[in-house]
Amino acid sequence: MSPKTRNVTQREIARIAGVSQTTVSMVLNDRDGSNVRIPAATRERVKQAIEQSTYVADPAARRLAGLDNQIMGVFTYEPALSPESMDFYGPLLNGLERAAEQVGCDLLFFTSSPVENGSRSLFHRKTRLRLADGCILLGQQMDGDDLKRLVDERFPFVAVGRRDETTAKVPYVGIDYVSLTAELIERAVGLGHTDALYVHRNLHSPAARDRMQQIQASTASGGLKFTLVVAEDGDLTGVTRAAEQTGATAVFTEDAFLAEDVALVLGNAGVEVPSAISLTALAEVRGHRVHGRALSGFQTPRLQVAAEALSLLQQLVTTRAEEWDSLDTQRLLQGKVELGETLVERMSAT
Amino acid sequence: MSPKTRNVTQREIARIAGVSQTTVSMVLNDRDGSNVRIPAATRERVKQAIEQSTYVADPAARRLAGLDNQIMGVFTYEPALSPESMDFYGPLLNGLERAAEQVGCDLLFFTSSPVENGSRSLFHRKTRLRLADGCILLGQQMDGDDLKRLVDERFPFVAVGRRDETTAKVPYVGIDYVSLTAELIERAVGLGHTDALYVHRNLHSPAARDRMQQIQASTASGGLKFTLVVAEDGDLTGVTRAAEQTGATAVFTEDAFLAEDVALVLGNAGVEVPSAISLTALAEVRGHRVHGRALSGFQTPRLQVAAEALSLLQQLVTTRAEEWDSLDTQRLLQGKVELGETLVERMSAT
DNA sequence: GACCGATGATAATACCTATTATCAAAAGTT
DNA sequence: AACTTTTGATAATAGGTATTATCATCGGTC
Question: What pLDDT, in 10s, does the model give residues B256-266?
Answer without folding.
Answer: 999 999 999 99
